Amino acid sequence: MTRKTVSELLAEVDASFPDNNTGQITPALLRTMFKDFLDSVRPTTVSFYRQTPISPSTPSPITLGWEFLAGVPSPDFTASAPNLGRFARLGNNTQTNFVVDLTVKVPTGAKLTVGLYKNGVDTGYSEPYTSVDGNTERNITIVGTTQDAAEPASYDIRVTNTAANFTFVRGHFLMIASARSEPA
After folding, report:
1. Where are the beta strands (DSSP E) in 84-152?
2. Over the stretch 85-100, which tens digit does the pLDDT of each residue have?
3. Has this prediction a pTM greater than 0.70?
4. Which of 42, 118, 136, 184 has the fewest Cβ atoms nearer than 10 Å?
5. What digits encode the pLDDT tens for the residues 17-54?
6. Distance from first CA to last CA of the chain, Å, rounded?
7. Out of 2.60.120.40, 3.30.470.20, 3.40.50.720, 3.90.226.10, which CATH number does the structure's domain 44-179 have?
């Protein structure tokens, strides 16, 4: 079935359900309409988790890799490379909500910025952090919404750092797709 906007669903209802004085409304039409409707209103998710600490030794910026993938099977997302921290949105005119929640340890005075990238380009959703109390665990959280067009996209989380010895302790990267909002 297909994820559709409200306007597309309304047009499908008008086209599929004439007055039934001629017997044109069939069980197959009803099933198709209900499946399209349910696909369109059902949020879908994909989550990456990391529970094993890593201390990147590569220069900044780095893309965070993840250990586990969880989520609702989705026509909207696929894990294109979870170990590289990347997954793909397949299009389908979705609104994408995301939450990134990381726990890091950073040496005193070191700075890092965590950001969401789409197709390799910084989205502007980022959070800077400067350590003032050396190597204490700190949470960094980014929350946002993107209005995505129909074309596919690839997302990842990158860290720009001034200290090569920061530790990514654990984290969670959740993306939720829902039907694209339409103007009233």
Report:
1. 86-89, 94-105, 111-118, 121-130, 138-147
2. 677 776 655 677 788 8
3. no
4. 184
5. 777 777 777 888 888 888 877 766 666 666 777 777 77
6. 25
7. 2.60.120.40
